């Protein structure tokens, strides 16, 4: 399994990346701002349009170092992908099953089962740890509704129906999400998801966290030999890493949402960390984005016991482990894909 190392986040939008030996060099108007050994890196994420040298892109592709370009606000632009090293038999199986609704549903329902289960766990944990801060009866009712949806998901045999149950579960979960914000409640209010653009501070952080998680998940899928752009639940669309979006469904709540809540509740991010644009989009300031990324990298190093393997790993390795388990299922080594069911 690929060892989790470090990701270099380049947050200044006017930085050009170049190659010098086995090092990435950060340049601003021909002035050298820094250099980082590439053998220490698993990935590079650059926010902005300035770009990177062909030599660096070639090096990263050859060494299987993820090189991803995002806009300043965190919207995905492109990712450098080298020669496919995936097992051709594995990818052919993936493509064949993605074209079959029955096979796709069997895999997709476990993604959604994991998502709903983890949403239920988040709600139950919040009820147990903060009974005086939340509406306990509403939380218990929501937990029961999610349990009923999990039963329906388990026996669901149609993709459109599965998407409907996923949407219903998300609706119940989002209705109580605002109560999980325990600090800075006047400044951070969640009324529901707004994506393009995010129209409040909470959605701005959630969208940014989902972008980072999708990038990590796509890199993990490619590393184990799968095609991150051919999914089972999310339909194929040019430029969209559909399988990465599939796989990250079960991780959105326990990985990304809880991370955003922790930043707010620990007051590591404040109201002055955001600004609004004319189109009502709410974005993080440069300093806030740097603090967010630093905390994200720290969280990836935290150790957990994987619920299926029973082994201690870092949070940052979870996308790789789930990618490996998915590959094992597609190869026929497992009877079904085991979702990440966190406790």
Would you give an account of this structure?
- Keywords: Antiviral defense, DNA-binding, Endonuclease, Hydrolase, Magnesium, Manganese, Metal-binding, Nuclease.
- There is one protein chain.
- With 343 residues, this protein is of the alpha+beta class.
- It folds into 2 domains: 6-80, Ribosomal Protein L15, Chain: K, domain 2, CATH 3.100.10.20; 88-331, CRISPR-associated endonuclease Cas1, C-terminal domain (Four Helix Bundle (Hemerythrin (Met), subunit A)), CATH 1.20.120.920.
- Helix content is 47%, strand content 15%.
- The chain has 10 helices and 11 strands.
- It has a 4-stranded mixed sheet. Strands 2-3-4 form a 3-stranded antiparallel sheet. Strands 8-9 form a two-stranded antiparallel sheet.
- α3 runs parallel beside α8 and α6 packs across α7 (242-248).
- It is globular and about 60 Å long.
């Amino acid at each position: 399994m690929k060892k989790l190392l470090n990701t270099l986040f380049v947050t200044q939008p006017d930085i050009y990346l170049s190659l010098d030996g086995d090092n990435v060099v950060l340049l601003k108007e021909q002035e050298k701002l820094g250099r980082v050994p590439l053998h220490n890196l698993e990935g590079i994420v650059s926010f902005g349009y300035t770009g990177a040298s062909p030599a660096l892109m070639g090096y990263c592709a050859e060494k299987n170092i993820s090189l991803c370009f995002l806009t300043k606000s965190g919207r995905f632009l492109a990712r450098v992908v080298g020669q496919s090293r995936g097992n051709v038999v594995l990818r052919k199986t993936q493509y064949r099953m993605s074209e079959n609704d029955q096979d796709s549903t069997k895999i997709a329902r476990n993604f959604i089962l994991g998502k709903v289960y983890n949403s239920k766990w988040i709600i139950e944990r919040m009820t147990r740890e903060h009974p005086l801060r939340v509406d306990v009866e509403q939380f218990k009712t929501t937990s029961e509704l999610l349990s009923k949806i999990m039963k329906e998901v388990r026996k669901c045999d149609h993709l459109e129906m599965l998407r409907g149950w996923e949407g219903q579960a998300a609706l119940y979960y989002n209705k109580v999400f605002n109560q999980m914000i325990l600090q800075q409640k006047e400044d951070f209010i969640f009324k529901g998801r707004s994506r393009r653009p995010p129209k409040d501070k909470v959605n701005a952080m959630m969208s940014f966290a989902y972008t980072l998680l999708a990038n990590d998940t796509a890199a993990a899928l490619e590393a184990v030999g799968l095609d991150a752009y051919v999914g089972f639940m999310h339909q194929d669309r040019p430029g969209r890493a559909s399988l990465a979006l599939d796989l990250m469904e079960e991780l959105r709540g326990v990985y990304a949402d809880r991370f955003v809540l922790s930043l707010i509740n620990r007051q590591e991010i404040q109201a002055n960390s955001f600004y609004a644009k004319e189109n009502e989009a709410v974005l993080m300031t440069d300093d806030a984005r740097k603090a967010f990324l630093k905390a994200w990298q720290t969280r990836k190093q935290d150790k957990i016991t994987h619920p299926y393997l029973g082994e201690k790993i870092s949070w940052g390795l979870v996308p790789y482990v789930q990618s490996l388990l998915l590959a094992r299922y597609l190869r026929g080594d497992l009877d079904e894909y085991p979702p990440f069911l966190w406790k």
